[in-house]
Design goal:
By secondary structure, the protein is mostly helical. The chain folds into two domains: 67 residues, no CATH class; 305 residues, no CATH class. The protein has a two-stranded antiparallel sheet with strand order 1-2. A hairpin with a 4-residue loop joins β1 and β2. α6 runs antiparallel to α10. It is globular.
């Protein structure tokens, strides 16, 4: 990698020197005065180069403007959404919007409207100077990982809304709006208008990921409007809440497993009674992939922070009858604590290290606490 960067730097110096001397790289070192034709050609060539150089700078400034911070990121976001919601009371004749669907809609708007969708931006897909993917560096990949974590939770919730929550029992027809929205959220997150360098995607013009995800917003809004007018179904039964929690537990369990594997620099082998190298590492701040896993988990917990609060409203009758309030409080607390982690630099050091902490283990620990609360809730709901 460093050799390629060195060659690129040498070539860049040569072209810059030629640019400001009105000469081509081939004769930039000669002292012979150029002819009038050559001077005209070189002035034109210099203007073209300057134009493309300025376009390249603006192109990358746009990337930096969008990638350096996440707009609207606040753990207080569920309050503004749920303030006007009414709890589910168990009255079969009550028609009300679903809080889960409202939070789902907000989060989609958050990642594709309030913020640019980073994973499909050509500057992000190109990587560092077209040589190294941003995921392999410690720069400019955190926001994309957070967005993919939010998308992961949205996809899981979209499936549950279609298959379980938005229909009466398993034999009824799936709601067409929820089914269409679920399909849109499954769209590949790295697709841009043109993808000529990616063999897994079509060469011709296609819709970018952000446009596809944005199309699901009116579908969720239409479903909630029909739900408020008693023209759609939201089955807030105890067994549906049980299954919803089980799916979230499985989803977060996969994340915990990925975090644990990456942070495990060594492990105990009972066969040899010794410690052997683990699947991960203890490189601390020098593990440039650790931040991707951490930020993905952060985005996932940020989304579930709002979705679980919304589920508390949608299943208020079940939670009240089963006396789940105290455990649910703990669940929301641990999810929020995971979503609030914000290290300046993500470190993947030893768990007992003094200089470089293990942020992956800290995130995994917070998620495991939330999963333990989900297990308690599921045990009560199964009785």
């Amino acid at each position: 990698m460093f050799e390629r960067l060195g060659r690129w730097y040498d070539s860049l110096k040569r072209w810059v020197r030629a640019l400001f001397s009105f000469r081509t790289p081939a004769d930039a070192d000669t002292l012979a005065p150029p002819s009038r034709t050559k001077r005209i050609w070189r002035v034109t060539w210099r203007g073209v180069v300057i134009f493309f150089l300025l376009a390249f700078i603006v192109w990358n400034l746009d990337f930096l403007w969008n990638v350096l911070w996440t707009r609207g990121y606040s753990l207080a976001y569920p309050k503004s959404i749920l303030a006007t919601e009414t709890p589910q009371t168990g009255d079969p004749n009550q028609c009300r919007r679903s809080a889960i669907v409202d939070v789902q809609t907000y989060l989609i708007d958050f990642v594709v409207n309030e913020n640019a969708w980073i994973s499909s931006m050509p500057q992000y897909k190109l990587g560092l100077l077209g040589i190294v993917p941003w995921e392999s560096t410690p720069f400019f990949d955190n926001k994309a990982a957070v967005q993919r974590g939010v998308l992961n939770a949205l996809r899981r919730t979209g499936v549950e809304l279609t298959d379980i929550l938005g229909r009466v029992r398993g034999t009824s027809q799936a709601d067409p709006d929820l089914q269409a929205a679920r399909g849109l959220l499954q769209y590949d997150e790295r697709t841009w208008w043109f993808n000529p360098f990616d063999t897994t995607r079509p060469f011709g013009p296609v819709q970018p990921s952000s446009s596809i995800y944005r199309s699901s917003i009116p579908l969720y809004e239409r479903f909630n409007g029909r739900l408020a007018n008693c023209q759609a179904s939201f089955d807030a039964r105890a067994d549906n809440l049980l299954q919803f929690l089980e799916r979230i537990a499985q989803d977060t369990g996969s994340t915990v497993d990925a975090l644990a594997k990456r942070s495990q620099g060594r492990r105990y082998d009972p066969q040899t009674d010794t410690f052997v190298p683990g699947e991960g590492n203890d490189r601390g701040w020098f593990d440039f992939r650790a931040d991707d896993l951490f930020m993905f988990a952060l985005g996932q917990m940020y989304a579930y922070h709002g979705l679980l609060q919304a589920a508390r409203l949608d299943f208020a009758d079940v939670i009240d009858k089963r006396d789940l309030g105290p455990v649910w409080d703990l669940l929301e607390r641990h999810v929020a604590e995971a979503a609030a982690l914000s290290p300046t630099i993500v470190s993947n050091g030893r768990e007992d290290g003094m200089m470089m902490p293990d942020h992956l283990a800290v995130m995994a620990q917070n998620i495991l606490r939330a999963r333990a609360n989900m297990t308690e809730l599921r045990d009560v709901l199964k009785r």
